[in-house]
């Protein structure tokens, strides 16, 4: 069985969450620090290989009314770059409110300032992965 990786793409930091082998819960998280989409995609490819990932899901920015926001095309372009680099399809997943929820979770656990800044993207990726895993279980 192959793991599932969730990607919370960002300009400076990209959160990564990887499922356990049973694809039932989040097994590990990390953050890629890069302002360069090519380097970020290459690092994702390395993590896919290293962690035996067989499926990718990436947070996709939508407005609260369900329409696509101004960053949507940027995310589609990055998803295509990752697909070319990794050789796996990237499933785009509605990420509305994941970053807000990640900040709330970190506040509840007294993560503030720099500590929060370095963690929020991994937490957001975990929320994307949890939502996707729940969707798969219910399908």
Largest pleated sheet? 5 strands, mixed
The computed structural class is: alpha/beta
Strand residue content? 15-25%
Radius of gyration: 14 Å
Give the overall average pLDDT: 89
- The run of helices and strands is EEEHEHEHHH
According to DSSP, the number of beta strands is 5
Number of helices: 5
- The first-to-last residue Cα distance is 18 Å
Order of strands, main sheet, comes to 3-2-1-4-5
Unreliable runs: none
Shape: globular
Helical content stands at 40-55%
Specify the oligomeric state.
Answer: single chain
In short:
The chain is of the alpha/beta class and about 140 residues long.
Topology record:
Layout: E1 3-8, E2 13-19, E3 26-33, H1 37-50, E4 53-60, H2 72-86, E5 90-94, H3 98-108, H4 113-117, H5 120-138
Parallel strand pairs: 1-4, 4-5
Antiparallel strand pairs: 1-2, 2-3
Helix pairs in contact: 1-2, 3-5
Explain what this protein looks like in three dimensions:
- The chain has 5 helices and 5 strands, in the order E-E-E-H-E-H-E-H-H-H.
- By secondary structure, the chain is α/β, with parallel strands linked by helices.
- It has a 5-stranded mixed sheet, sandwiched between helices.
- Strand 2 and strand 3 form a beta hairpin.
- Helix 1 crosses helix 2 and helix 3 crosses helix 5.
- The chain is globular, with a radius of gyration of 14 Å.
- It starts with a strand and ends with a helix.
- The model has no long low-confidence stretch (mean pLDDT 89).
């Amino acid at each position: 069985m192959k793991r599932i990786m969730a990607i919370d793409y960002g300009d400076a930091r990209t959160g990564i969450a990887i499922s356990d082998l049973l694809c039932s819960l989040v097994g590990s998280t990390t953050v890629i620090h890069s302002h360069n989409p090519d380097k970020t995609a290459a690092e994702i490819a390395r993590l896919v290989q290293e962690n035996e990932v067989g499926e990718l899901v990436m947070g996709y920015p939508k407005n609260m009314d369900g329409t696509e926001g101004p960053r949507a095309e940027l995310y589609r372009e990055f998803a295509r770059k990752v697909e070319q680099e990794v050789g796996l399809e990237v499933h785009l997943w509605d990420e509305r409110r994941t970053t807000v929820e990640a900040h709330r979770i970190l506040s509840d656990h007294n993560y503030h300032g720099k500590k929060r800044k370095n963690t929020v993207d991994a937490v957001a990726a975990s929320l994307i992965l949890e939502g996707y895993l729940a969707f798969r279980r219910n399908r």
